[in-house]
Specification:
The structure holds two protein chains of two kinds. By secondary structure, chain A is α/β, with parallel strands linked by helices. In chain A, about 25% of the residues lie in helices and about 30% in strands. The N and C termini of chain B lie far apart (about 45 Å). The longest helix of chain B is centred in the middle third of the chain and has 23 residues. Chain B is an alpha/beta fold. The model of chain B has no long low-confidence stretch (mean pLDDT about 95). Classes of the chains: A alpha/beta, B alpha/beta.
Amino acid sequence: MKIAIGQIDTVLGDVEKNVKKLEHYTDKAIEEKCDLIVFPELAVCGYSLRDLVYTSSKTPDDPAFLSLKEKSNYIDIVFGFAQKESGYFFNSSMYLSNGEILNIHKKRFLPDYGMFEEQRYFSPGQTIDTFKTKFGKVTTLICEDAFHISSHYATFKNETEILIILSASPFWSDHNSMKWELWENVCKTSAQLNGYFVIFSNRVGFEDGVGFFGKSFIVSPNGHIIKEASFLKEELFASEIDLRDIERARLFMPIRKNEVCNESIG
Amino acid sequence: MNLLDKLKIDCEFISSYLIEFVRQEITKTGFTKAVIGLSGGIDSSVVAYIAKEALGKENVYGILMPYKLSSKESVEDALKVVKDTGINYKIFEITDPADAYISKFDEMDKVRKGNIFARLRMITLFDHSQLYKALVVGTSNKTELLLGYGTWYGDMASCLNPIGDLYKNQIYQLARYLRVPESIIKKKPSADLWVGQSDEEELGFSYDEADVILYHLYDLHYTIEEVVNLGFKRELVRGIADRVKRNQFKRLPPIIAKISKRTINIDFRYLRDWGL
């Protein structure tokens, strides 16, 4: 299986321009014979929307997404968008396959500390779902979702095989840490403890001085980074993975074998 | 651990980050050029090296704006940066306009004069912004922004600022990494607003002390008492914390009286990069 990550910059609040960019990179990924392309969080509208949430949010059946749906006959596509529903807004991801919406995940944990103000504008999702795709069982998380142990418990309980994380993660650093180390640690650990692939798709570009660092990557079920994209650069990043590695990793470390999952958690 | 070690930055990543910041935040507005006030000091020198990498030397304009009493060394050092980076430059003396204004008063203290110089330089930079179709890149570091050690709408004014989240100590680290001329790194920091001015003498503490205290108070959320326990005098820590509070106004746009249901910057909330 060949996975592509569209590590893109976005135009703040301009859905039309951003969707065009998604279409462009999707076409390139199809040319490169990729099976799946993953774009970042809020890829069709930009991250720090503030009051632009009201005009940049779309329903999943909006005509803006028609062309991407059509392209999903040739490649599975995952992207983040601001979702409008009954007058409320969600930070969501859409998984398209065979011309249809296979899943929508509404971000469950909306950060509202430090520089973040997502909870001011968005309503939280209620569930973390795992769904069947042509490649196996997939769970999508959006950025902050992945910092919550309960999300990883859900993927564990649901026997996820590919965890997809869409992110708009801003850069910061201090004398003993770089922001991406946090992501690498979380994703490697999750992959290792669950024996699944993790695809981390992060955006690039600046919004009023806040820089999204990129460095998207894919982690193997053994917890190794297979390939990592560049720091700050927009690029289409593609890598082959062997889905049999999931089974191999679980044979080597059959962690879930002796676990009775508690249905009330996760 | 030396307390200053906590301010260590990875110069390779930070410089490439700042280069991308300058390139992207300028080009997405439709501009391709930058104008920078070059004082011969460490801050504007570092910004010039970053801007040159971001936009290319032909797209960067360094403007030297000495007053008749400015030190010769300042101009010489600024010219070293021009020569080393290959950026465009212009020497625009502010003596005539400054003296024309100052002469309208019988007397004027040095703080007022310093503010006038800083604001005349701001006028010059923004005029050249229009002349060259270039954005003004700011050169205020985090230490002076927090201390309020700058002139509001003077040297604090710019379109974008790559170094506003770096303490003075971190500017020195970056300067060494970017190979800013040694004479600029070695000399004592000075706003050069009057003869013999020294930042550290005027402030009453060293930049290293200020950086460590500010970093612990605001980046690490230490209490004043906890910072005192690191080995600083209580009056010094309190004095610095007071300065930060007193100068909050300088770091924000003017406040607006709320009347309507949707007031600019209160509940009319958009980033500047709206649509960019």
